[in-house]
């Protein structure tokens, strides 16, 4: 077949399980599919009239990088107002909010608030009341699972006391039953969120298009979206109609507590819907919340007596939901952060052997997301359960510290904090490990994330001590987490994840070789281009 495209580079990492002999420096593509890999001499023989040849010289070509956990549409709501992620003290937070209040019209909004900025001070509405200029205010914490509302926002929303929810969610109140302003988990936050004026569809489409272009410029050719809604579908359809979907997206709508088989049937009907480059392919569930806000599910309480309850008040209903989807060959991805939460998910997955036909079980990928603190005995069970791990190395390197003085480590105590983000142990146990960012919870550029996975500290900060350094990934393991293992985490290894004949022509072109460059240098290096379906999505202008 005459190739439409030939891509050349001095270094090409195919990540093929059966690589050809000799160096690979050329890839041929026809109709979006890899048709040949070989040498530059081979490429000379492949070339025909009309073949587009792109030569990246000394650069490195890899399979397309895929972020295994992102929230691009949900993130539009989480990134409104002032970015507080860089604030390290309460004074800095208040100064940023005061400046933002002078610009926001109806509501004061902010996001990315790190609880470490508060030290030992409790999160309370009073910290917003005198900086909000009389406006209602809602500030999202970095974990995406909690927010702080000021007194005016609580008044507008009619939130005056405690609430009962179908999920483990809470309007935190003081001893007198008065809301403190801290709202834990989605149901509590929605009490206030629904009173905030909403953006127009056109504005959200513009913001999403810009975000996806930034994803492509960072080297991403795909992403596993851990949420989905009717609005998501409308936005993706609209962007694709305009030719503005520069990467491949795989979405998973949420299955929440309080639902039953009728609801699960409706969710199942969404599977397989989509467009050319996006589709709904899995179901997302939550079994707990986060350590930082006290809603994880732990064997033993945290330092403050919190994180003792599951997100599903009746966890057997979570297990029933997983069985419903698994028996129908529908992949699931479950948010599980605490040790008790991870154990419950593993038990649910192990129980599938008794109810799911073996052929369906083999071809259906089930995942656990996050896995922040896991004891030895649970690590050993992943392989036998056939469960994929999906983790975010920068949650470790951005929000915890080697000396355990951060909020996450303090809440857990030294023993559990020492079991932080056990990426290497899972890989050594033979578990497929997909890597991602959880944007907007952490920045999305993949090269710094791969560097952090190797360094176990924040790239570009050599003064920092590594956090649980024995859990550092090798350079190859970090690259696999964005390529071959990302494909395995989506059940797509037969069509993507390596540069192999017959697979999708999704490539990322890098200035430096991720397998030989020092991690800090890799993090600061340039992405030269991305291809999806053999079509250029981003190309750096190196002449500028």
SSE arrangement:
Blueprint: E1 5-8, E2 11-12, E3 26-30, E4 33-38, H1 40-46, E5 52-55, E6 60-63, E7 65-70, H2 74-78, E8 82-83, H3 90-101, E9 108-113, H4 126-129, E10 137-141, E11 146-149, H5 151-157, E12 170-173, E13 179-184, H6 185-193, H7 201-217, E14 220-225, H8 230-241, E15 248-251, E16 254-255, H9 261-270, E17 278-280, E18 283-286, H10 315-327, E19 332-336, H11 339-351, H12 358-363, E20 366-370, H13 376-385, E21 387-391, H14 393-399, H15 407-412, H16 414-417, H17 423-428, E22 433-435, H18 446-455, H19 475-482, H20 484-489, E23 507-510, H21 519-524, E24 527-532, E25 535-539
Parallel strand pairs: 1-5, 2-6, 7-14, 8-9, 9-10, 14-15, 15-17, 16-18, 18-19, 19-20, 20-21, 21-22
Antiparallel strand pairs: 1-3, 3-4, 6-23, 10-11, 11-13, 12-13, 23-24, 24-25
How would you explain this protein's 3D organization?
This protein is α/β, with parallel strands linked by helices. It is 33% helix and 20% strand. It has a six-stranded mixed beta sheet, sandwiched between helices. Strand 14 (220-225), helix 8 and strand 15 (248-251) form a beta-alpha-beta unit. It starts with a strand and ends in a 5-residue tail after the last strand. 52% of the residues are buried. The mean pLDDT is 95.
């Amino acid at each position: 077949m005459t190739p439409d495209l030939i891509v050349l580079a001095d270094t090409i990492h195919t990540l093929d399980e059966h690589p050809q002999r000799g160096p690979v420096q050329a890839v041929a593509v026809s109709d979006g599919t890899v048709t040949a890999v070989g040498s530059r001499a081979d490429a000379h023989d492949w070339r025909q009239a009309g073949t587009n040849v792109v030569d990246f010289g000394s650069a490195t070509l890899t399979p397309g990088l895929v972020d295994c956990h992102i929230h691009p549409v949900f993130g539009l709501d989480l990134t409104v107002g002032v970015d507080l992620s860089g604030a390290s003290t309460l004074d800095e937070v208040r100064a940023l909010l005061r400046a933002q209040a002078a610009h926001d019209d109806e509501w004061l909004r902010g996001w990315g608030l790190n609880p470490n900025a508060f030290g030992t001070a409790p999160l309370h509405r009073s910290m917003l009341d005198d900086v909000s200029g009389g406006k209602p205010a809602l500030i999202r914490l970095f974990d995406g699972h909690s927010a702080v509302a000021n007194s005016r926002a609580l008044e507008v929303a009619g939130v005056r006391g405690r609430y009962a929810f179908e999920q483990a969610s809470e309007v935190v109140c003081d001893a007198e039953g008065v809301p403190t302003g801290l709202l834990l988990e989605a149901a509590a936050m929605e009490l206030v969120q629904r009173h905030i004026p909403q953006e127009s569809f056109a504005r959200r489409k513009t913001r999403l298009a810009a975000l996806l272009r930034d994803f492509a410029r960072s080297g991403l050719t795909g992403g596993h979206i851990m949420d989905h809604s009717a609005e998501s579908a409308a936005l993706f359809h609209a962007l694709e109609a305009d030719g503005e979907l520069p990467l491949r997206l795989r979405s998973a709508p949420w299955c929440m507590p309080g639902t039953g088989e009728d609801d699960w049937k409706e969710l199942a009907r969404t599977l397989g819907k989509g467009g050319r480059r996006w589709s709904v392919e899995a179901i997302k569930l939550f079994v707990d919340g986060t350590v930082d806000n006290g809603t994880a599910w732990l064997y033993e309480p945290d330092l403050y007596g919190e994180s003792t309850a599951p997100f599903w008040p009746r966890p057997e209903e979570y297990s029933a939901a997983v069985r419903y989807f698994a028996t129908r060959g529908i992949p699931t991805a479950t948010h599980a952060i605490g040790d008790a939460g991870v154990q419950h998910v593993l038990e649910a997955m192990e129980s599938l052997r008794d109810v799911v036909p073996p052929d369906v079980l083999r071809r259906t990928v089930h995942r656990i997301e996050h896995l922040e603190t896991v004891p030895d005995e649970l690590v050993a069970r992943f392989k036998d359960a056939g469960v994929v791990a999906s983790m975010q190395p920068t949650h470790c390197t951005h929000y915890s510290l080697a000396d355990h003085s951060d909020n996450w480590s303090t809440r857990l105590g030294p023993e559990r904090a020492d079991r932080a983000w056990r990426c290497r142990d899972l890989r050594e146990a033979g578990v497929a490990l997909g890597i991602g960012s959880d944007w907007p919870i952490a920045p999305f550029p993949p090269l710094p994330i791969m560097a952090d996975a190797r360094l176990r500290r924040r790239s570009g900060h050599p003064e920092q001590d590594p956090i649980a350094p024995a859990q550092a990934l090798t350079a190859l393991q970090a690259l696999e987490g964005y390529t071959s293992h990302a494909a395995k985490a989506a059940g797509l290894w037969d069509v993507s994840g390596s540069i192999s004949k017959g697979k999708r022509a999704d490539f990322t072109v890098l200035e430096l070789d991720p397998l030989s460059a020092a991690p800090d240098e890799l993090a600061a290096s340039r992405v030269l281009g991305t291809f999806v379906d053999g079509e250029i999505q981003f190309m750096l202008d190196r002449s500028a």
